Amino acid sequence: MPEPQNLRASGERIEQALNELQATADPRSLNLAEELLRLVADLYGAGLARMAEIARVRSPELITDFAADELVASLLLVQGLHPDPLDVRVEGALESVRPFLGRHGGDVRLLAVDDDSGAVKLRLLGNCDGCPSSAATLQGAVEAAILEAAPEVTRIVVEEPNLDATPAVPIALGVKPLYDACPTEVAIQ
Question: What is the share, in percent, of the chain residues with pLDDT greater than 90?
């Protein structure tokens, strides 16, 4: 079985090849390559959907195992087949960083998730709330955990204390292929 690093390298190479095609190929060849990629993804996606349905019927615990496997979970996400909704995966990611935040006297609360835009709204609690390093804490531990569990998240908004009615501070995510890191409007309250 290939190592996760090799699988990541394969994904990166696919993105690189597509970028090279976009930069160098004539429009007809580029359209043909994109159509071919879509058709292969649709075929494999349909096969994965059928496998997931068979597993749900014959061995429901297998779906949990699929969701726990990094590679399989990523394929399920791409095909819209992941068994856990976005808010459950984000909350799980936050659970994983709570010990780290707790060691620094802080915590984080999930306030809202907008499935359509991929936006997550959080509140930092305890010593993390309003401290100068809260943005760095979010950027490091919290952001990494959320993006690992829910790569479709495109924006994280941190609600600041309402001491002077300061608006929420959006934290821009790093460059993410295929996603707009700054949607024009995010309506989560």
Answer: 35
